[in-house]
TrEMBL record:
UniProt name for this protein: Uncharacterized protein
Higher taxonomy: Eukaryota, Metazoa, Ecdysozoa, Arthropoda, Hexapoda
Length: 92
């Protein structure tokens, strides 16, 4: 698969067109800042602040900035990193 086709598929996967609600173990968070090494500090609606990681398939194709909203799936075995970014959202 060429780089152009890969980016097209990753972008389609990352930004869905139909506004689905989060699943049972997913939640929407707001990005506070990027802390490096594909980690982002986020805040949950309840006010809890923690780190989430960016999956490798998104790393060179998707850029997240402060103030963006992302859909996160929790990681239970992590101490510092509490979740992994699942999709970008268009909620505000």
């Amino acid at each position: 698969m060429s780089l152009r086709n890969k980016r097209k598929h990753v972008m389609n996967e990352a930004q869905w067109e139909d506004q689905r609600l989060p699943g049972r173990n997913q939640y929407i968070v707001k990005v506070l800042r990027s802390t490096g090494n594909n980690l982002h500090m986020v805040t949950k609606p309840c006010g809890e602040v923690h780190h989430v990681s960016m999956p490798s398939k998104f790393r060179r194709n998707i850029w997240i900035k402060r103030g963006d909203y992302v859909l996160v799936e929790p990681i239970l075995e992590g101490k510092k990193v509490k979740g992994e970014i699942f999709l970008l959202t268009r909620y505000c």
